[in-house]
Amino acid sequence: MKRPFFHFLGGLIFPVIYYFNTRKVVLLCTLVLLIVILLFEWARKKYPVLNAWLFTYCAGFFKPQEKSGLTGMPFFVGGALITIALYDKSLAITALCFLTFGDVTAALVGKKYGKHKILAPKSLEGSMAFFLVTGAVGLFLKNYYFPDYLSNSSILIAAFIATLIESLPAYLDDNLTVPVLTGLALQLLRF
Known about the structure:
- There is one protein chain.
- It contains eight helices and two strands, in the order αααααββααα.
- The longest helix is centred in the middle third of the chain and has 25 residues, at about 90-115.
- By secondary structure, it is mainly α.
- α1 packs antiparallel against α5, α2 (about 25-45) runs antiparallel to α4 and α4 (about 75-85) packs parallel to α8 (about 175-190).
- It has one domain.
- It has helices spanning about 1-20, 25-45, 50-55, 75-85, 90-115, 125-145, 150-165, 175-190; strands spanning about 115-120, 120-125.
């Protein structure tokens, strides 16, 4: 439960801060954060005692396979950085919210109710939850914050595309692929 909560709060920071600030400010802050995270990743590889401490006292925040590889943090922050750099504010915030709300919901629903595996470890139930939540979040953002940027049907198509991206086997971390490719889908649906 710690990891989804951490993922949700950490993920919500980017769209909220971006909503109230300029692209330039958010890009600079996100770049600095990414550099700090990459230095941390380097330090935990260089100093095994740091890595051991991290996975002893903060184990609930990380996946077991992250002990020997990169954590999801550089992918998450890198995905936010690329998304904010490439897309205008409304599209970037929507794409980041799709990742934040959708990924956490898919993980929680998939763990508890995921009976029908589509692509291990992804479940049909988790993917359906991802789609429903991202569709609802997208429609909420469109109707209350960005009324002129896309049609309702475009939002639902983007939610479906984001669901497909999230459910595919990961050659790249979905913390990177979901916001960047969802932003692209939203951009293309504008035309």
